[in-house]
Design brief:
single chain; alpha/beta; six-stranded parallel sheet
């Protein structure tokens, strides 16, 4: 496999392919990468090279000559045709183009498709619409060159964005505090580690039990760890008997990420709520005038003895100065008429102000909203750039209340915030009062996603001074810096949740999965091992086709989790009553028979997936 890039994502992707999937990787990077961001990329480069040296040393010690996991590194300013040929694109299985410039990636992809029509291409593009057109163009070109026809899987093209792939994990971290997330069918699924159940306690298995954690005592279930594990190592994809027999062992279960907190009063688009039409001062003025009218009507009723409705009617006539003068009435009635006329004079400017405010509110209905009073339990999002915009969209899709803070009124995500009617505070987050305007003292969590590490750190430190137990997530590029910040914040605030995230670190698994094939949805680490999630066509797999869901399960290898339902198929025909439903049907009955036309989502170990998909497992997983 070939990886070409000019930033940290290329090195992380190469390390992911070597360390997780045991693939042979050729890394192509520009020479200037040593001078640009030296404190960051230099360390990533060194880590990638160190991993390569370790793998090569292991191969030399075994003496089997297996190149799995090995690779080399080339330096080139641009991915020209000669550079791609030198990297071995004609013989490669997959090519990842992860340059920060979309044009560079597209130009290299067109060249690579001409050199190897059967090559699996993975491109990093931020422009979604352009990415769809490029993907269709390259797939059509591969189909014409190979003669296999579209949809055959030969020469497939996958266009990804690091912002899109990192957004689900960042959103889940802000919500539930974990980065072990897989996205499928628009759902976010997380792997949750649970402590061993107490005697007599029944643990919730979630969607399914993914693994048994390393045993802390003599546990008979730990004697058969998957993928060559030791006696007390984690056991991946255990069967129900193993889960019941396990004592003193924690579990990893699969759950759906959801939100049950308060929601923002969004209202209908273009029609503001009544409370937004008038300011607080104007509402109090109207309430005071209404109270004066009621008081005058009651006084008139007591003075004249009229019926309450008639007294109110006469008071309103006096208020609008359309009643006959009370010069022949008693003194009390004359005084009340003068007071009503005076209140009427006060009412005119208030009504005029109400009309002007309402018209101004309707005109600015598409403008930025302010955080509503009394808001709490929300997420404060700092930065509406490339990453922040994607995270904002993901959070609102999950109906999570968000308040954004952005210093640049022309930022990329401002239009998205207006469209989603999300409150935005304009101002520099490092200035006093900006976070207070975002209601940070009542927030659920803080997502610091600006492009400047020091700004993110300063905002988090100030937010922690306001609320010590606030959940914070930082976007930090430098790994060493992120580790130091994380440890310091954890030591200073041991009861608060702190997470530091790198976008390239979060995006690398998705790019690596795409290089392995479109069916790979993601990977979740379990201690020193990894579980892969894949979407697989049942046709052509004798281990699945024609068998029930219960018969297809193989402990320690793979487990069918969900079934994709086509548009013309009813969910009720497949799913049991009360099952969690989406386009993917979860909690399938064990008696359901898989057909050749079905498409399923399964969890598998590396070795199990290699066996199921017919890939050659070149090396054993590390112990």
């Amino acid at each position: 496999m070939v990886v070409c890039g000019d930033d940290g994502l290329a090195h992380r992707l190469a390390a992911e392919l070597r360390g997780v999937y045991r693939e042979q990787v050729t890394l192509v990077v520009p020479p200037s990468v040593r001078r640009v961001r030296q404190p960051v990329v230099g360390r990533a480069r060194a880590a990638s090279a160190a991993l390569l040296d370790m793998v090569n040393a292991a191969v030399n010690r075994t003496g089997n000559g297996d190149p799995g996991g090995a690779g080399r590194e080339l330096e080139a300013t641009e991915p020209t045709e000669d550079v791609l040929a030198d990297a071995g694109v004609e013989r490669a299985t997959a090519l990842a183009l992860v340059y920060d410039d979309d044009e560079t990636n597209i130009r290299a992809a067109l060249t690579a498709r001409r050199l190897n029509p059967r090559l699996r291409l993975v491109l990093r593009l931020y422009n979604r619409r352009l990415g769809q057109h490029i993907e269709e163009l390259l797939d059509q070109s591969a189909a014409l060159a190979t003669g296999d026809g579209p949809g055959s899987g030969t020469g497939s093209t996958t266009v990804l964005s690091d912002a899109d792939t990192a957004a689900p994990a960042l959103a889940a971290t802000a919500l539930v505090g974990t980065g072990k997330v897989v996205e499928t069918d628009g759902l976010l699924l997380r792997a949750v580690e649970r402590d061993p159940p107490r005697p007599g306690e029944v643990a919730d298995p979630g969607l399914c039990t993914l693994a048994l954690l390393s045993a802390t005592s003599n546990d008979p279930a730990g004697a058969d760890g998957s993928e060559g594990s030791g006696e007390q190592g984690p056991r991946l994809l255990p069967d129900e008997a193993a889960v019941r027999a396990a004592t003193g062992r924690g579990t990893v279960v699969l759950e759906q990420v959801s939100y049950s907190g308060p929601a923002l009063p969004a209202g209908r688009a273009g029609v503001p709520a009544f409370g937004e039409l008038f300011s607080r001062r104007l509402r109090w003025s109207l309430a005071g005038l209404a109270a004066c009218v009621v008081a005058l009507a009651v006084a008139l009723m007591l003075v004249t003895g009229d019926h309450p409705l008639h007294a109110t009617y006469v008071t309103l006539l006096d208020l609008f100065s359309i009643n006959e003068p009370a010069h022949n009435d008693d003194v009390g009635r004359q005084i009340l008429q003068l007071l009503s006329g005076f209140v009427g004079l006060l009412l005119l400017p208030v009504l005029l102000a109400a009309v002007l405010e309402a018209l101004g509110t309707f005109r600015s209905a598409s403008a930025l909203r302010k955080p509503p009073r009394g808001l709490g339990g929300h997420v404060v999002l700092l930065g509406l750039g490339k990453i922040g915009t994607r995270v904002l969209t993901r959070l609102r899709e999950m109906d999570i209340p968000v308040v954004c803070v952005e210093a640049d009124p022309e930022a990329r995500g401002m239009a998205t915030a207006r469209r989603l009617r999300v409150p935005v505070v304009l101002g520099d987050v490092t200035q006093e009062g900006v976070l207070e305007a975002a209601k940070i003292h009542r927030a659920h969590s803080l997502l610091a996603l600006t492009s400047v590490d020091t700004t993110n750190l300063e905002a988090v430190l100030y937010a922690r001074s306001v609320r010590s137990r606030l959940r914070v997530v930082l976007r930090l590029y430098d790994d060493d810096f992120a580790t130091a910040v994380y440890r310091t914040l954890r030591a200073a605030h041991p009861r608060a949740l702190t997470r530091s995230r790198s976008v390239t670190h979060l995006a690398a698994p998705s790019f690596a999965g795409a290089m392995m094939g479109r069916q790979i949805l993601g990977a979740i680490p379990v201690e020193r091992r990894v579980l892969l999630f894949a979407a697989v066509e049942v046709a052509g797999h004798p281990q699945l086709e024609g068998k029930t869901v219960g018969e297809t399960f193989r402990a320690g290898a793979w487990r069918v989790l969900a079934l994709e339902v086509s548009d013309g198929e009813r969910v009720e025909d497949v799913a049991p009553e009360g099952a969690r439903q989406s386009r993917l049907v979860w909690e399938l009955p064990d008696t359901y028979v898989l057909r050749g036309s079905d498409r399923v989502v399964l969890a598998a170990t590396r070795r199990g997936l290699a066996e199921l998909l017919g890939r050659r497992a070149r090396q054993r997983s590390p112990g």
